[in-house]
Amino acid sequence: MTAPLDLLDLDPSLSEEERQIRDVVRQVVDDQVRPYVADWYDKGRVPARELAREFGKLGLLGMHLTGYGCAGASAVAYGLACQELEAGDSGVRSLVSVQGSLAMYAIWRYGSEEQKQRWLPSMATGDAIGCFGLTEPDHGSDPASMTTRARRHGDDWVLTGGKLWITNAPIADVGVIWARTDSGVRGFAVPMDTPGVTAREIHRKMSLRASVTGEISLDDVRLPADALLPEAIGLKAPLSCLTEARYGIVWGSVGAARDCLETALAYATTRTQFGRPLAGFQLTQAKLADMAVELVKGQLLALHLGRLADAGRLRPEQVSVGKLNNVREALAIARQCRTILGANGVSGEYPVMRHANNLESVLTYEGTSEIHQLVVGQRLTGLSAFA
Ligand SMILES: Cc1cc2nc3c(=O)[nH]c(=O)nc-3n(C[C@H](O)[C@H](O)[C@H](O)COP(=O)(O)OP(=O)(O)OC[C@H]3O[C@@H](n4cnc5c(N)ncnc54)[C@H](O)[C@@H]3O)c2cc1C
């Protein structure tokens, strides 16, 4: 942690190994993301396969999973890696989250031994890319209403329907696709080159431009019986994968906020107006102080949730608390930092507006803020206000 922003001396509460992992990921982000990411964002193109292989070499893909070539790191170490990746760009962190916490986790947790052997080792190295298809054009926050269907034809399954806003879909080798069957929602590991599967890239995003997002059409896609994830029964299976990914966002969003605050702090100390640095004005210091307080609160929350996860005691609604607070505050920090940079704040020469725009997507995906408020509200009141 850059010293001035570590107001509460959190650094010593990390283990030596956790600090080492964090520092290695920070270095990789400095070398392989920061110099290029503004350009990727500008052009809406990111070398996702190359990045995945680089991250695979470091053991960042499926990092918190065990076996099958995965690193078996702690939840806190995984969170610290997410923080560093998202300090580079939320889209880059999304690549790692979708691969490890959604696609790989689904296969690792719910797949057959054959499915694990087939997909996980190559996904851990980044040679195979995965995506996770839950959201549909007409069903986002309410996946229980999904209309994608899987029907039995003899031993085979036939999938029809469509998925929208699917990270990595246009470049994926395997899609974990969720579909309604006669016995409820089930998951399938679908090779993306199966006849009837089409993945088109979504263009003109104003957010997460350094991430590939797509639409998947499933047009009578015939799959062998062993494409079914045998242990994934009902909607709780995809929801458990989302809890995994949201945990990474709790940490990642703080990384984006930290990068904004570091940028604003450096800018405010060097830019002078009215004969003194911006940082010397009381109004600027009030902004910086409030943001630093929120940042460190977000880091404390992430670390607390991480320690609960490592103790096997983390509950889904606690992850909702983290996602709700940390993304909301990270977005507020990014917007406030933008004001400190004045006109330069809207320029792609600085990372702040890019982070702010990215965080708009992060606020929405993996459960919107409103959905997490409802999760926490249900926990508080015992009443479900979803429908
Ligand atoms: C860049 C990007 C990448 C994504 N990647 C993936 C992916 O890899 N896989 C995947 O499956 N999905 C992905 N998503 C989709 C994402 O998870 C959905 O967008 C999200 O769940 C919200 O669904 P929606 O957009 O349909 O909004 P809607 O559900 O239509 O919601 C619209 C608004 O209504 C509010 N709302 C809805 N229901 C309620 C309620 N009961 N009470 C109060 N307010 C409510 C929401 O909070 C929101 O503000 C991605 C999205 C983006 C933007």
Ligands and ions found: flavin-adenine dinucleotide
Report the portion of residues in β strands: 15-25%
Q: What is the mean predicted local confidence, pLDDT?
A: 97
| Cα radius of gyration in angstroms | 21 Å
Can you give the helix content as a percent range?
A: 40-55%
Give a structural overview.
This protein has 387 residues and is α+β, with helices and mostly antiparallel strands. The protein contains 11 helices and 10 strands. It has helices at residues 16-32, 34-43, 48-57, 75-88, 90-110, 113-125, 236-270, 282-310, 316-340, 352-364, 369-381, and strands at 130-133, 149-153, 156-167, 174-181, 184-191, 197-201, 213-223, 228-233, 272-273, 276-277. It has a 4-stranded mixed sheet. α7 packs antiparallel against α8, α7 (236-270) packs parallel to α9 and α9 runs antiparallel to α10 (352-364). The model has no long low-confidence stretch (mean pLDDT 97). Bound molecules: flavin-adenine dinucleotide. Residues 98, 132-135, 140-141, 165-167, 208, 213, 361, 364-366, 368, 370-371, 386 line the site of flavin-adenine dinucleotide.
